[in-house]
Amino acid sequence: MASFELPPIKDNPDGGWGPSPSNFPPDFKFKDIPYAPFSKADKLGRYADWNDLTGDNRQSAANAAGGARPTGTGRRREGQQTFGSGIANAFAVFQVEDEASFSLVDNRSSAPRRGGAGGFGRTRGGSRTAGAGNRGGQRGGRFGFQTGRGGGQRGGGRRGWRDWEKNTRTRESSVTISSSWHMLEEIEFHRLGKLRLEVDEPDDLESCGKIFPYDKTYDRITTKTERPLQPLDRIKYNTTTSDDPVIQQLASKDIATVYTTDVILSVLMCAPRSVYPWDIVIVRDGNKLFFDKRDGGPFDTVTVNENATDPPQDPPVPNPNNPNEKVVQPETPSINTTSSLSLEATYINQNFGFQAVIETPPPPPVEFEKPNPFYGPDEAEPLASCGYRYRVFDMSVSEEEDVKILVRTEVDAYIPGQGSAQNGQGSAQNGQGLATIRALNEFDSRAQGAGGAPDWRSKLDSQRGAVVATEMKNNNCKLSKWTVQSVLAGAEVLKIGYVSRANPRDNTRHVILSTASMRPMDFAGQLNISLANGWGIVRTVTDLCMKMPEGKYVLVKDPNRPVIRLYSVPMTAFTGEDEEDAEGDEEVHHESDN
Known about the structure:
Layout: H1 50-53, H2 55-66, E1 120-122, E2 128-130, H3 134-140, H4 148-156, E3 182-188, H5 189-192, E4 203-213, E5 227-228, H6 245-251, E6 258-261, H7 262-269, E7 279-285, E8 288-292, H8 338-355, E9 366-367, E10 386-394, E11 404-411, E12 413-414, H9 421-429, E13 434-442, H10 456-459, H11 464-474, H12 476-489, E14 493-503, E15 506-518, H13 520-526, H14 531-546, E16 551-557, E17 563-569, H15 576-593
Parallel strand pairs: 4-12, 6-8, 6-11, 13-14
Antiparallel strand pairs: 1-2, 3-17, 4-9, 4-10, 5-15, 7-8, 7-16, 10-11, 12-13, 14-15, 16-17
């Protein structure tokens, strides 16, 4: 039978806990390990407490060192601290490279507690508000309406069905990236948001066109007195920068360094807010830069709910690289797809601007110094109410440099004065009382892509602030571009019409439900638009292009990432020559295959 002997017990003559250092043998392997003090009241409930080895132990040490009140998760009563908690834990675990992929799975119950961050807390007044939705309620309070319940739904709403699939949808680029293009620069949006440049008031060089007075009766339209939207045949030009004869004449005099239009410039200044793809063609000719748009590109249409959480989607397109892939196409094309809604919104914007002016005097129209530079004598249809103001902004940082930009801006009407028509006409000629006219459209509040918008017919008169707040969220980029265009043109008023379908299933008939008046600078503050940031983006792109040699470049917004890229392209790009060359290459390729 084996014998059992008790191990020797080393008594500590100092009266402390643990063995005395004087009793350690010279070759004791644990001699240099520091000793962590502990309290007699501590209980050993686990062999290893992961919380004590990570964040909770550091929180306890911080509370003990700073005198803060212990959190509710601690085991001790308030005012009683753990013995030795202020001493650094020598046995704390620190992750190294081979443990970087390790993560602890919390197996505790995930049921929300009453009053917690994930649940509802009852206020003193008895109403229930979502903790995650307080930001939405505070943001909506600026418009003078209560959004305790609605704001909670926007801020802390549940995820819907198949939300995991929405992030996997990809968009196509606005322009086909050719293999012959060379990428020169890539800039993330978060870098653009840090740019700043203060620009003074512009100088007016030329003014062309003719504008009519705004019809003030549209300000009194309500949902009960709706007015049908009428299609009108008017001509309104959206000519690119290089084809503008006035810009060509001013560029020959070396008026500025950069030449563009307000439509193109507003997209660049609001680039960090954009979601859909776009592209700007940049031509450097000597010491001049021309920012152009492509015919049929994204600058000729209006987006719908671009910034919504779940924006409208186009039907899937078959992949040409995978002929075996089956794509189920709907039997009837939907009227609520991205492309259909964009065309509908463009139609509404044009016709609302044509309809909301008075073309038969009194009051009389305002004719600027020069006639419309794009209207020829052979045109049969009448011109739309539109005035062009060519303005120069100084983007110079110091007095030694001279960097100016010439912008062709547009105004749609003027606000007739309270006095006689002659006084109102004279003030409009001096740049006072000018207005830009735009329109928001409602398609179907229950359709996919509506972005949680309320029904306008039931909410527009009683809760206009809720409608405005939703549109500012879903169409933030579009409203920002309209506001920047109004500021660049020097307009005093921005008129925004609310146009809805007469029937949600019919996208050909529309009615005007209301019209709102905005001061561009005040509305820019509500949208949190920083013009200094926009000018900083323009100056950065200008400096980047001026470092390149003469040629043609394309600034492309990535369709699926918040990134813009600058490409160097051949001079024949986006012209008839490159299309013929591409067709010729295809014919040669087919002949070689045969």
